[in-house]
Design brief:
Order of helices and strands: HHHEEHHHHHH
Strand order of the largest sheet: 1-2
Oligomer: single chain
Number of helices: 9
Structural class: mainly alpha
């Protein structure tokens, strides 16, 4: 477990760093940075998460279940549904705000609008951290198989790359809300801190219930797909010129696919 924790800490630390670097874009771009760029950022993140859910989580979950003589479909379907339910409940309970639709969701709250904006992205980062942590936990269980580590590394790199534009998609709206560049950067960067937290927690949980690893992998996939369908793709296609968001999705999907094949 120690090895898995070290790898998960490094992997989610990298994704957190990329979020922070993305948030630093607030210092380079104008306050009125166009909506097209944010649509492309959100679409790109969606594409990466779709590909990662399939190649890095669902397929390994099936293979792991079948390797232990079980039904490869049952844990994948069950875990996927539980992951969707988990994010759905969080979506209902945690107050958050979506700038594109100018709408507040979750329980009624007196929190500031900027805080609600950050909460929305924090929800996105929870399943990403879980996915990276579980991938390295699975790799640690297959210590002699370098391909499993390569697959986990590909996932961490892919999530990290998509976190760069995602970090910008947090800090830029905060700047538009009137925050200073410094505050927008700080809050945007810190929005990714949940990834190391949930990544390490996922490793600890996986170590306690190793036989249920296929369920956990599919759980992370379901949670990520909920975020993609409920939040990222709709926001990437608001208003006119939705083709920008579409090309963003395709680019992210292609990049994650290439990473998985090249490194895996």
């Amino acid at each position: 477990m120690k090895e898995a924790l070290l790898w998960a800490t490094a992997g989610t630390g990298f994704t957190f760093l990329m979020t922070t670097l993305g948030a630093a874009m607030v210092f380079l771009l104008r306050r009125e940075a166009g909506g097209k760029m944010q649509k492309a950022f959100l679409g790109f993140a969606a594409g990466v998460m779709i590909a990662a859910s399939v190649w890095s989580l669902l397929i390994p979950a099936m293979e792991e279940a079948e390797a232990h003589g079980g039904n490869g479909l049952l844990p994948v379907v069950g875990g996927f549904i539980l992951g969707i339910a988990f994010l759905y409940v969080l979506d209902l309970l945690i107050p958050h705000f979506h700038p594109g639709v100018n709408k507040t969701e979750g329980l009624t709250s007196s929190m500031k609008r900027t805080t609600l904006l950050v909460m929305a992205v924090t929800l996105h980062n929870i399943p990403e951290g879980m996915a990276v942590g579980l991938s390295f936990a699975l790799a640690a269980q297959h210590g002699a198989d370098s391909a499993v580590y390569a697959s986990a590394l590909a996932l961490a790199v892919g999530i990290g790359i998509q976190n760069f534009p995602e970090g910008a998609a947090v800090s830029l709206p905060l700047r538009q809300e009137g925050l200073t560049k410094g505050k927008a950067f700080l809050i945007g960067g810190l929005s990714g801190i949940v990834e190391p937290v949930f990544g390490i927690a996922a490793v600890l949980i996986a170590a306690l219930i190793t036989p249920y690893m296929p369920w956990l992998l599919a759980f992370a996939a379901g949670a990520m797909m909920y975020v993609v369908v409920e939040e990222l793709i709709p926001e990437a296609h608001l208003g006119e010129h939705s083709n920008v968001g579409t090309f963003g999705v395709m680019s992210g999907f292609l990049l994650m696919m290439v990473l998985d094949v090249a490194l895996g």
